[in-house]
Amino acid sequence: MLRLLKIEWNKIYNYKTARIFIIIYFALLASMGYLVTVIKPSVDNMSFDLAQLGAYIFPYVWQNITYFADFGSIFLGVIIITNITNEYSYRTIKQNLIDGLTKKEFLLSKLSVSLIFAVLSTVIVFFACLLLGLAYTQNPVSIFHGAEFILGYFLKISVFFLFCTLLAFWIRRSGFAFIVVILWRFVETIILGIEKIGSNSTFYISNLLPGNALAHLLPVPGIKIQNFMTGGSIFSLSDFQYQYCIAAIVYIVLFTVLSYRLLKKRDL
Amino acid sequence: MNTVLEIDKLSKHFGSLVAVDEISFSVEKGNVYGLLGPNGSGKTTTLGMILNVVNPSKGSWRWFGKTHSSDSLKRIGAIIERPNFYPYLSAAKNLQIVASIKQVPYSQIDEKLKLVDLLHRKNDRFYAFSLGMKQRLAIAAALLNNPEVLILDEPTNGLDPQGIIKIREIIKQIANMGTTIILASHLLDEVEKVCSHVVVLNKGKSIYCGTVENMSHELGYFELAAANIDELVTILEKMPYFEKIVRTQNIVSATLKTDLDAEELNRMLVNHGIYLNHLVKRKNNLEQQFLNLIKNETDVTTAQNRME
Predict the structure, then answer these.
(1) What's the mean pLDDT when you consider all of chain A?
(2) pLDDT value of residue B217
(3) Mutation target among A2, A83, A94, A95 for the B interface, most CBs of B within 10 A
(4) What number of CA atoms fall less than 13 Å from residue A249's CA on the CB side?
């Protein structure tokens, strides 16, 4: 495993664009805890101070920050896709296999990088939430109430990275793979919209599509004015829906298996 | 155990196209093999299959007497088609990746770069290399694990004369170290210069596998000239040794059907009162032999088709 990581490290870290992307991403993520406190969006000349609205107090901080941090994962998605499609355009995948790397090892080396990205992001986001919460929460509350969203964040970005991996192996061209990643979200939303027409059911089957299922893991933070009126946070904590964790794990397995099958079956 | 590679009825179909059709041959240790064939005869596909990057449709092969695994690849060095490296990495960094894959220490890198005369460019990026240098770097990469077998696919394709000579020298040097080499090429002249054995492929079939000398059973031909060329032809035609006599301007070429040495022929002609001013005994070069082989094969196929 260490050998595979060493190989990947040489490939990615010495690639200037990837290196810059990775450094910017992790620097932004790590400084997010500070940055969110200085950014004060203004709407209609009214300045919103999220801190005063109670965005960073426990337990709401867990949901708010993970929801926000998730947008950054597109950065790493780009790196994951180019890291794989480059192997095809340089034909180095062929040479790697001729040199004695097995197809399984090749896939593992790519997955291990995604895993490291996911774990590192999760750890940074966890500490950002924890520090913000500790700094802004005045009333004594349970610190880890709502911390399930960290698990949701980890699963969501992991599935996203694997989705990028699968598309890269499947399409082999970075440009097309990016387009599919972007369009995919719209397609799922449209499918869900169509399913909802003329239906008032509480469960929709297209919620189980990867993008829709993942969206339920990190729902949009809710807002409750009356809480704010009574001196609390304007935000409300959504229920963490564990059933979508199962969906995420199913997709992790599925995308891995499909990537391996693609790699195994195709001639290079 | 002297058989390095055995290929048994290996086939590859791309849809309805049969790229490789039940190829069987074996490679013995220590020899330099030329894999010959016109473009599209299945050379690269065959190499791709035995190197595990192209999935075979049928058939099997054994490396070093064992069923194929990635461990056998670690005893092989191979370059297919063109040098494939990460363009943004330096020569040394590229070789570090190969060394990690092949599980050999980085200390090998400088040694191999020196062998291909690239040590002074080790920190330059791959994209800045000339084609000849890229090809040499590929050879260095293939040699990193001190392979028992080296597979080279068209190693001199697109190179200038100096580049070709340099690669050829490196190949000879490697062959002298006792490494088995399989060299795929359509440049016959090249194969003739470095190979002891040949495998000839045509339209996805292997039509010959053996030493270069045994490739044809021809006895060769004489090139003769004399002052009285008409008389020379008449006398030659009366002799029982030749199957074909062709006169082109001042030279007569007579193809042998039974063995005859030049001295003997000279003596007989003198007895007939002919004094030669030109006498050479030649054998067809590889190119002609190869073309004959391909031609015979095509003739047989056409004949079969007609019979059907």
Answers:
(1) 88
(2) 63
(3) A95
(4) 6
ipTM of model? 0.86
The residue in chain B having the minimum alpha-carbon distance to the alpha carbon of residue A264 is B55
- Structural domain total, chain A: 1
Q: What angle do CA B65, B198, B155 make, to 5 degrees?
A: 90
What architecture is the B3-215 domain classified under in CATH? 3-Layer(aba) Sandwich (3.40)
Q: Out of A136-140, B200-204, B255-259, which region has the weakest mean confidence (pLDDT)? A: A136-140
> What's the CA gap between A22 and A56, in Å, rounded?
26
Residue-wise pLDDT tens digits, A56-115: 888 888 888 899 899 999 999 999 999 999 999 999 999 999 998 999 999 999 999 999
Amino acid at A59: P
Would you identify the CATH topology of the domain B221-282?
Alpha-Beta Plaits (3.30.70)
Distances (CA, A) of A4 to A80, B140, B163: 16, 22, 35
Collect all residues with Cβ–Cβ distance below 8 Å to A92 and sequence separation of at least 6: A86, B84, B85, B86
Residue A260 pLDDT > 90: yes
CA nearest to B127 within chain A: A90
- Whether B78 has its CB under 8 Å from any CB of chain A: the answer is yes
Residue located via tokens 């599919």 = A180
The answer, as to whether pTM is greater than 0.90, is: no
DSSP string, B117-149: T-GGGTTSBGGGS-HHHHHHHHHHHHHTT--SE
Cα separation values, A91 from A80, A268, B84, B185, Å? 17, 8, 6, 21
For A211, the token pair is 């993008």
